[in-house]
């Protein structure tokens, strides 16, 4: 399992900040956030989850549950008995919740970013295009569609910064060795949160394609599901990949969530 670390020597907060990326992703889902978090005095640990990025595939087949034990062992090896602050984006949020449902001592708090499966959406809200079967010349169009359909509310960002979003997305999906992983049920996260005892916060883009018009139902869903829910922040003019699309607003929301979660 490959980890990327920033700010360890200069950190003013002794609690490591661990970032889990989304499905078909890698640590680069956080590329626009790392410097600001390190500058805020945190040691930042961003992992490539098993089967994604540069990490080896998990020994056990499956979805988020296949990540739990490898990730638990990794955190215990890295930090011993010390707890971290855990932030999970999308699929990584489901992984984080399942991890803490069975290994609660590993984290001081959990912040979920654009996480799925809260049980408030009646049906899937987006349609993605397959690309692996296409000739190379036709694959970029499929990747563009998928970014605009699921990840970004502002499709103009696909070509911004010399096409950074598209380049990261293509590199990540090409390295996904678990394309047929088992999908979570519609309320899998909500059910799992019942067993997460640490403080839980949440951050979403207001136009997240996972939820669309049902985004307003999330606050009550979290309050019902998480025993120690500390609040939901909705970032305006942002979609699912909220930390990439609106990095400054996300940074402020994350620091505020972490402060709330660290309070007694």
TrEMBL record:
Keywords: Hydrolase. Residues 17-252 form the AB hydrolase-1 domain. PANTHER family: ALPHA_BETA-HYDROLASES SUPERFAMILY PROTEIN, HYDROLASE. InterPro entries: AB_hydrolase_1, AB_hydrolase_fold, Epox_hydrolase-like. This is Alpha/beta hydrolase. One of its GO terms (molecular function) is hydrolase activity. The keyword Transmembrane does not apply. The keyword Phosphoprotein does not apply. It comes from Melaminivora suipulveris. Coiled coil: none annotated. Pfam families: Abhydrolase_6.
């Amino acid at each position: 399992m490959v980890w990327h670390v920033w700010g360890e020597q200069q950190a003013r907060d002794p609690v490591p900040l661990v970032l889990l990326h989304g499905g078909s992703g890698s640590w680069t889902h956080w590329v626009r956030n790392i410097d600001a978090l390190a500058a805020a005095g945190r040691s930042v640990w961003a992992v490539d989850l098993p089967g994604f990025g540069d990490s080896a595939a998990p020994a056990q087949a499956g979805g988020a549950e296949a990540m739990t034990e490898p990730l638990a062992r990794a955190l215990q090896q890295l930090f011993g008995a010390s707890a971290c602050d855990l932030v999970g984006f999308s699929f990584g949020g489901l992984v984080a919740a399942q991890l803490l449902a069975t290994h609660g001592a590993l984290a001081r708090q959990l912040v979920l970013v654009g996480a799925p499966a809260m049980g408030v959406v009646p049906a899937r809200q987006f349609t993605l295009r397959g690309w692996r079967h296409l000739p190379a010349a036709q694959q970029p169009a499929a990747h563009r569609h998928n970014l605009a359909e699921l990840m970004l509310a502002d499709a103009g960002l696909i070509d911004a910064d010399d096409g950074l979003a598209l380049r990261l997305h293509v590199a990540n999906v090409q390295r996904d060795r678990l394309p047929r992983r088992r999908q979570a049920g519609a309320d899998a996260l909500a059910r799992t949160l019942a067993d997460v005892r640490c403080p839980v916060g949440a951050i979403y883009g207001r136009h997240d394609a996972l939820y669309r018009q049902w985004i307003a139902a999330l606050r009550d869903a979290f309050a019902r599901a998480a025993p120690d829910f500390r609040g939901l922040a909705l970032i305006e003019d942002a979609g699912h990949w909220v930390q990439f699309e609106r990095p400054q607003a996300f940074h402020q929301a994350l620091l505020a969530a972490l402060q709330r979660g660290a309070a007694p």
